[in-house]
Amino acid sequence: MKILTVDDAKTVRQILRNILEPCGYCVLEAENGRIALDMIQQEPGINVIFLDWDMPELDGYAFLHLFRQRDPDHKIKVIMLTAANKMVHILDALDAGADEYIMKPFTKEMVMEKLRYISGYDC
Q1: What is the pLDDT of residues 19-60, one digit of tens each?
Q2: Total Cβ atoms within 10 A of residue 103
Q3: Residue 37 and residue 20: Cα distance in Å, rounded?
Q4: What is the pLDDT of residues 82-118, one digit of tens each?
């Protein structure tokens, strides 16, 4: 399974890589939504996206709107992974097309539970 992590913080992308790769997942990285949109077109077979909310160039909210226009059937699952923790942010993300939501800081268990829930895959 291919997972794309989209976050402007390299540290967050590295933490996700350290959680996911030992479980056999192929992990790709993008530092903003614009790069992520390009990667999705160039890299077939992405199953899940971990997406930050607040990023330069194209934030997670704008990315979701553009991305779901291209993927209206939700073939690729999106998990918002962000410090934005107000209920309005959660509802906005879900309305925009996110499948799940994880608040930072996060644990390995939280990541794996959400991934298992939306994909059926387990480590």
Answers
A1: 999 999 999 999 999 999 999 999 989 999 999 999 999 999
A2: 14
A3: 21
A4: 887 778 888 888 888 999 999 999 999 999 999 999 9
State the Cα–Cα distance between residues 97 and 72, nearest whole angstrom. 9
The strands making up 26-30's β-sheet, listed across from edge to edge, are: 26-30, 2-6, 46-51, 77-82, 100-103
Enter the tokens of residue 102: 């994880």
CB neighbours of residue 21 within 10 Å: 12
The highest-level CATH class for domain 2-117 is: alpha beta
Give the N- to C-terminal CA distance of the chain in Å, as an integer.
Answer: 11
Distance CA 98, CA 25 (A): 21
- d(CA 14, CA 17) in angstroms, rounded, equals 5
CA angle 64, 67, 71 (to 5 degrees): 125
Tokens standing for residue 67: 């991305």
Q: How many CB atoms lie under 10 A from the CB of residue 102?
A: 17
